[in-house]
Specification:
Elements: H1 6-22, H2 27-43, H3 47-68, H4 74-105, H5 122-137, H6 147-155, H7 168-175, H8 183-216, H9 223-254, H10 272-278, H11 281-298, H12 303-322, H13 326-338, H14 340-344, H15 361-382, H16 386-396, H17 410-425, H18 440-457
Helix pairs in contact: 2-6, 3-4, 3-5, 3-6, 4-5, 6-7, 8-9, 8-17, 8-18, 9-15, 9-16, 11-12, 12-13, 13-15
Length: 470
């Protein structure tokens, strides 16, 4: 049930009406209805995995209660919770990868691979469960005794399939207090959903056939075309993923919830560290708290070398989180290597505020350099194998890089320009269409323009989102 599908629009319209108009004054009834709606939303994909979701929620719920007792067995319950959560993820997402890699390493033929279907959103809800367990262990959160609140936290349908990865400390309190719908928040939510739909249906879906054609036929194309494909894919993935996040956050806002901000205009990042602070924020902040910080503490005696190692390992995990493939692992490792000059020059945590009107020459240079690094790494992101990735890199570093690239379309460049302009105008706002500060006439004209673009240029056939596969 895609956010941009007619089925979801009908589902949410009915859900929204019942949720507010019939159940609006009864918190418990709202939470029961929210849970049923979340389960229906998830079962629409594959009802069999709903059993896994419900079973996992049950196990972690009771383990959380055991951990919160602070008894002598606390660490045992914590380890059981982590083993269960991580083990489930490893089995469904990485089992065949480990078997195949082991067999390749020792040159043996293996028939142990299984036809395992990856449950939708398992990486996202597993990380919610892990953070819940660790937060209770570290006394940052009390075990939730409200069954409805906890099960809703794990299965919350707006952010189930592709995040954001909300922590229990943010979402659980909101599930236990009365929610109020206001015209102001509803209008802001509608704006964000509109922008997300434009990004996905108009920008991402129009770029997708071009990048697919380029990467599937790279052997017969020039280096400039392959490089152009990597640049296009950056905008495709940004429009696709941030578009999903905009819609997810907007839908949650319509239901009275504030969720984690997932993007902060990463196209204007001044270096690679700035980029990762602004890209997929809920994942990077999760890893910073639960992986990177413990690694920094563990390696603190090794000064900058220890920091480099912590960064490198953190990004290997980032890469591996994206998928069970060596291409993703190398992708993560490359991101870690990008940080080396920043660590050496003590620039890893330096933040700079961009110019309000137009970027300076230095800012523009930093943006272009950072995006070049990002696009170079994205070749690994899209390549089906390392062999294909090296084949694409071989093309890019050939003399044909200096030829005129194919597939250049004015419409696509124009759409990318619109995204860049919208982001730049609102770069200091919460999201890209937070334009309440503009005059009503200006706002209405802009809404009309986006709706027109969706109706005229929108590609409705491709409803799937890139990050659903993770």
């Amino acid at each position: 049930m895609q956010f941009t599908s007619l089925v979801f629009i009908l589902f949410f319209s009915v859900f929204f009406a019942i949720y507010w108009w019939i159940l609006g004054k009864n918190l418990k009834a709202q939470n029961i209805f929210l849970l049923l709606g979340s389960y229906l939303f998830y079962a629409y994909w594959d009802w069999r995995f709903l059993i896994l979701l419900m079973g996992s929620s049950t196990v972690v719920y009771f383990l959380g209660l055991k951990i919160s007792d602070n008894g002598p067995s606390k660490n045992i319950w914590v380890n059981m919770g982590l083993l269960f959560s991580v083990g489930t993820l490893l089995y469904f997402k990485y089992f065949n990868f480990f078997i195949e890699s082991f067999a390749d390493l020792f040159g043996i033929k293996s028939d142990l691979t299984l036809k395992i279907i990856l449950p939708l959103g398992i990486s996202f809800y597993t990380f919610r469960m892990i953070s819940y367990i660790l937060d209770i262990k570290n006394n940052k959160l009390k075990a939730e005794t409200d069954v409805l609140a906890f099960f809703n936290y794990i299965a919350f349908f707006p952010s189930m399939t592709s995040g954001p990865i909300d922590k229990g400390g943010l979402l659980l309190p909101q599930l236990k207090k009365e929610r109020v719908f206001t015209l102001e928040s509803g209008t802001d939510a509608a704006r964000q959903i509109l922008l997300g739909a434009f990004k996905k249906l108009v920008v991402s879906n129009n770029i997708s056939p071009i990048t697919q054609d380029i990467f599937q036929n790279y052997e017969h194309l020039s280096g400039s075309t392959v490089a152009f494909g990597a640049i296009l894919f950056l905008f495709q993935m940004y429009a696709d993923f941030s578009g999903y996040s905009d819609m997810a956050i907007g839908i949650a806002k319509l239901l009275g919830f504030k969720t984690t901000k997932n993007f902060a205009f990463p196209l204007f990042a001044q270096n690679i560290a700035d980029y990762w602070r602004k890209w997929h924020i809920s994942l990077t902040s999760w890893l910073t708290e639960y992986v990177f910080t413990p690694l920094v503490i563990a390696f603190r005696d090794y000064d900058k070398k220890g920091l480099m190692l912590a960064v490198f390992l953190n990004f290997v995990i980032v890469g591996f989180w994206h998928g069970a493939s060596w291409t993703f692992i190398v992708y993560g490792a490359l991101q870690g290597l990008y940080y080396v000059p920043l660590v050496v020059n003590n620039q890893i945590n330096k933040k700079k505020k961009l110019s309000k009107t137009i970027p300076t020459v230095k800012e523009l240079g930093n943006i272009l350099y950072t995006m070049m690094l990002v696009c170079f790494a994205l070749v690994l992101f899209v390549a089906p194998s390392l062999k294909d990735a090296f084949g694409m890199y071989g093309k890019i570093f050939s003399l044909s890089l200096f030829s005129i690239p194919q597939f250049i379309k004015v419409k696509i460049l124009g759409l990318i320009g619109i995204i860049i302009l919208i982001d730049w105008i609102n770069k200091e706002q919460e999201h890209g269409l937070e334009i309440s500060r503009f005059q009503p006439v200006t706002r209405r004209l802009f809404y009309t323009f986006l709706i027109f673009m969706i109706m005229y240029y929108g590609v409705f056939g491709n409803g799937s989102f890139i990050y659903e596969q993770f």
